[in-house]
Each structure stands twice: as structure tokens, then as C-alpha cells.
Amino acid sequence: MTQEQILKALSNVQEPDLGKDIVTLNMVKDTEINDNNVSFTVVLTTPACPLKDLIRNACVNAVQILVNKEAKVTVNFTSNTSSNRQDTQAVLPKVKNIIAVVSGKGGVGKSTVSANLALALAQGGAQVGLMDADIYGPSVPIMFGVRGERPMMMQIEGNDKGVIVPLEKYGIKLMSIGLLVDEKNAVVWRGPMASSAIRQFVTDVYWDELDYLIIDMPPGTGDIHLTLMQTVPVTGVVVVTTPQDVALADAKKGIAMFGQAQIKVPIIGLVENMSYFTPAELPNNKYYIFGKEGGKKLAEEYDIPLLGQIPLVQSIREGGDNGEPIMASNDEITKKAFEEFAGAAARSIAMRNANLEVTKVIEIVEG
Ligand SMILES: Nc1ncnc2c1ncn2[C@@H]1O[C@H](COP(=O)(O)OP(=O)(O)OP(=O)(O)O)[C@@H](O)[C@H]1O
């Protein structure tokens, strides 16, 4: 067997999401051949890639069918999370992907989804940060059991004001606007005051190197959302909804806002939360108490990916209230829904990076 033969065979293996073969995409590295043994490394676009087994099998088959049916093939995986930023001098320069989690309506589980998405991506091997920018109802301090903690300041080169160091918990970095301002005061902030607080918040926290920064946004579609998108280059948004009509109507407003010609931030996908109720003692029973598949239908109508359907489970609520989000627990059954959702989100982000325009802050021309 020769290196050329192996690469030629592997050029028949498609990266299913990116629609090109793994050799053209430069994903094959470190090929080693020893008699009948061949090993190589496939560099994925995200460590949380749920397609590893599929790609591994396709590689093994390609080598055995096209080169040598006796070959013993070892496929190793590594990853270099893709990014679509070219503005590395700008704000948050070492953050590869900035994902805003939004909802049209309050209370649909946006914070729960943000926190567990961040944890699931980190458990897949990515470096992840969670920024709670929900100025009117920051939930991260309670969800992560860090209420009352005061973040440290640090001096870094090129910034004489000092920067805020995120906390670290359950393998992710996190910061909440609720840890920096008095929650009672923030509620009454409106307009420019809220906008300037959010601008300062996103630029003053030192996230350093991250594959994904998940931003838990305030509910609705308002000035704060615009300010954020004018301040940081948002890779894309994840929209959270529940299946009821009232929530879906508001989710549509969110989708419409981000899709507007002047804004045009890509929608990574939609996640339907509280899709059905499952009692702990009967995990296979599903009760569609908020209606069936409203989020799924909405995703189809707007032609955006449905990233997941998360059940309504008592332990998800308890985890949020007790400072241990479900992805930090050992409730394997419930975690599965979030793991699948995070895998789908990571795939969709990689596709966005491969296929769409460069990520940049938006400029809105007033008037
Ligand atoms: N899938 C779920 N199963 C059970 N409880 C859930 C689920 N998702 C969210 N919850 C609970 O619902 C409540 C609201 O969730 P969360 O705070 O995440 O919503 P939100 O959309 O961020 O709210 P807000 O608009 O106030 O920011 C919380 O008590 C949370 O634990």
C-alpha cells in the first residue's frame, strides 16, 4: 500500500454535511503504513461531531474495498473547530464561534437550553464559554450555583482598565451580568443604559481562546439584541421555542428579526423545548401537553434546521434550581436529548462556516 493509494481511496469518503470529500477538505493527516496496517488522522470541524462512526466506517470500507481487503485500518480523530471570522483584531479575537441563543417569548427555557448546550459541547471536547446577557432575568448564577460570587479582575497587555475573568464550573467558563450588577437595579434599565451595560459586559470579559461562546440573550427582540450584534460578530443564532401557538408566534418574530436584510445573522437552527412531558418512572411515555411538534412544523415552514426536541422532565427543572444543570448530572436518559441537540448545533455551525458569508458585526444604517 502507498500513501497515494490511501489518499485516492479516501477521496471517495464524503463529509456528509459539507458535501465534499475529506481529502479535498484537507481533513486527512499523518498517514502511516506498515505492511497491512494503515493509520491516519481525520481532522473534524468540531470535536462534538456526531458523525465520527459514520466517517470511520466509510474510511475503513474505502481502504479495504479500493486498496487492500486485508488492510487493518485505524482511524484517529482530532478536531480543529471551524470558524468564519477574519476580524481577529476585533472584539473577542480568540473566540471562534459566537452563538446567540434567543427566544421570542420569556420562560420557554432559553437559559436552560443555553447552559446545557454549553456543557454538552464542552463534554464533546470543545472549549466553551457561557455568557448570560439576560439583563432582565439573569439565571446563570442560580443555575450554576454561583450566586453572590464576585469575579476577579486581571491586567492584560493593551488594556489598561483591566478585564473581568470568567468563573469556571463543570468544565466551562461562565459569566453573568447578574454577577456584575445588582439584579434589582438592572430590571429598570431601558434603552441606552441597558445597551451600554451590555456593550461593556461583552467587551470587558476576558474569554481568551474558545471554540464556542454561547450567549444567553434576553427574551424578545429589542434594542439589546441589536446592540449585541453591532458589538460582537455573531456566528449565528439558535432559536428556542415551546410547541404552543403563543410561543411559536413570538419565535417567528425572532426569526424575522435576524433574517432582516439589514441584519442577516444566520439562523443555526430551532430547538423545541418542553416538546412532551415524560414522567421519571415511565421514561418511554410521552404526553404532548403543549401540543405536538409545533416547533418542528415551524422549522419546516421557515426552512431552518430543527436541532432538537427536549422533553419536559422534572429533573431538568430541579437541576436548574439546584445549581447543577442536567448535563452536569448523571441522568443519562435526559442528557441524551441535549447531547443530540448539541451535536446537531455543532454540525449546523460547521456548515454555516463552510457555506455562508464571513462572520462580522452588523452595521445598521439608521433612518
Ligand atoms: N425541558 C424542561 N423540563 C423541565 N423544566 C424546564 C425545561 N426547560 C426549562 N425548564 C424550567 O422552566 C423554567 C424557565 O426556564 P428558563 O429560565 O430556562 O427559561 P428562559 O426562557 O430563559 O426564561 P427567561 O425568559 O426568564 O430568561 C425554569 O424553572 C427551568 O428549570
TrEMBL record:
Residues 4-74 form the MIP18 family-like domain. The keyword ATP-binding applies. The keyword Iron applies. It holds the Pfam family FeS_assembly_P. Keywords: ATP-binding, Hydrolase, Iron, Iron-sulfur, Metal-binding, Nucleotide-binding. ATP binds at residues 104-111. PANTHER family: IRON-SULFUR PROTEIN NUBPL (PTHR42961). Homodimer. Binds and transfers iron-sulfur (Fe-S) clusters to target apoproteins. Can hydrolyze ATP. This is Iron-sulfur cluster carrier protein. It comes from Pinibacter soli.
